Amino acid sequence: MIGSAVRAVLLDIDDTLVDTRAAFSAAISAVVARWMPGSDESVPAAALAHWVADRHGHFRAYTRGELTFVEQRRRRAVDLHLALGGPSLDGETFRVWEEHYERAFRGAWRAFEEVAGFLDRLEAAGLAIGAITNAGLAHQRDKLDRVGLKERIPVLVTVDDLGLGKPDPRVFALACSRLGVAAREAVYVGDELDVDARGARDAGLTGVWIDRRGRREEAGTVDVPAVETLTELADRWGI
């Protein structure tokens, strides 16, 4: 049963509300087909794993305010091509690359099936709802609109608000302030153990890890509540 002190639920967007990994897969497959024709059939999966891993931490640098969104994507694209044998990406070639990637990426945005029902249950329980994302405002508003969730997320805090993102505690504090609740009165749910669940916990919220891909064993000690779906979370809360 959800505690009586909880007044608000904050949610991550990518891979919590929206199946962004599937959209990444569609976009990266389009990139491989366009720039690495004739590749072995294993290459799209390898390319996706490389893109998601982002081993040089370009996206994290963006969330710390060190790179622009476009620059982090350009660096990740260059890394991808270097690793998998794609052509070099100069200014004009990258512009075409990004347009091609973005078209496929946006076309594959879909909300997870249980999201609408989960939000229904939160609303019926009288809980305030918001989202925190480490992407930009325009991009994420468009994403929520395309998947039919824009009107259901009245408060949205993005990396544009403070020029940095999670797990900085100021981001969580801003979201709570906009919802009119104290940190101790809010639950935050996200798919990244450190950035989302532990970051929220360390900022004074209740942090919940949504582990959609069964990573608990490889994660080792999990010191925050963990669920596999939002429905499981609502069932645990009894709402």
Q: What oligomeric state do the depicted chains represent?
A: single chain
**Can you tell me the number of structural domains?**
2
| Total count of strands | 6
First-residue to last-residue Cα separation:
7 Å
Write down the overall geometry: elongated
- Structural class, please? alpha/beta
Specify the CATH homologous superfamily of the largest domain.
Answer: HAD superfamily/HAD-like
CATH topology of the largest domain: Rossmann fold
Task: Describe the overall structure.
The protein is an alpha/beta fold and 239 residues long. The chain has two domains: 8-19 and 111-237, Rossmann fold (3-Layer(aba) Sandwich), CATH 3.40.50; 20-107. Helices cover 51% and strands 10% of the residues. The chain contains twelve helices and six strands. The protein has helices spanning 20-35, 43-53, 58-63, 69-84, 91-107, 115-124, 137-146, 159-162, 169-179, 193-202, 216-219, 230-237, and strands at 8-11, 128-132, 155-157, 186-190, 206-210, 226-227. It has a six-stranded parallel β-sheet, with helices on both faces. Helix 10 (193-202) links the parallel strand 4 and strand 5. The longest helix is centred in the middle third of the chain and has 17 residues, at 91-107. The protein is elongated and about 55 Å long. The model has no long low-confidence stretch (mean pLDDT 95).
